[in-house]
Q: What sequence folds into this?
């Protein structure tokens, strides 16, 4: 199984996967695709965006449904912000999700396998 070194794939799979080797591929999609084509790895595990990008370059590739990891995005703000500021950030984030703004941004970028949190 290949991972690109920029994800938690290695940490998440090593204890549970009983494959002979886990290969770290330095780089991004082109290097992952080359490793798969060259037989250095049989499969690639990463976030949905990266896997879809690699699969698009590999004729006949398949993406397994489901996920072994979910990535949550969060907002950080400096210590000491007032409760009103914290509440305003929550409102902005919730409105962006509920109005469809986040979904539109995902679609605009053409991100595959990315969903808006419930």
A:
């Amino acid at each position: 199984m290949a991972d690109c070194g920029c994800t938690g794939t290695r940490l998440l799979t090593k204890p549970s996967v009983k494959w002979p080797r886990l290969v770290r591929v330095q780089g991004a999609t082109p290097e992952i695709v080359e490793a798969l084509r060259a037989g250095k790895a049989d499969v690639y595990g990463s976030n949905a965006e990266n896997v879809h990008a690699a699969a698009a370059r590999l004729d006949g590739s398949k993406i397994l449904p489901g996920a072994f990891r979910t990535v949550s995005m969060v907002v950080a703000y400096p210590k000491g912000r007032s409760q009103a500021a914290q509440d305003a950030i929550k409102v902005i984030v919730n409105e962006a999700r509920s109005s469809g703004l986040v979904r539109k941004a995902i679609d605009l970028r053409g991100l595959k396998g990315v969903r808006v949190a419930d």
In short: The first strand starts at residue 2 and ends at 3. The mean pLDDT is 82. The chain has two domains: 2-55, 72-118. The radius of gyration is 18 Å.
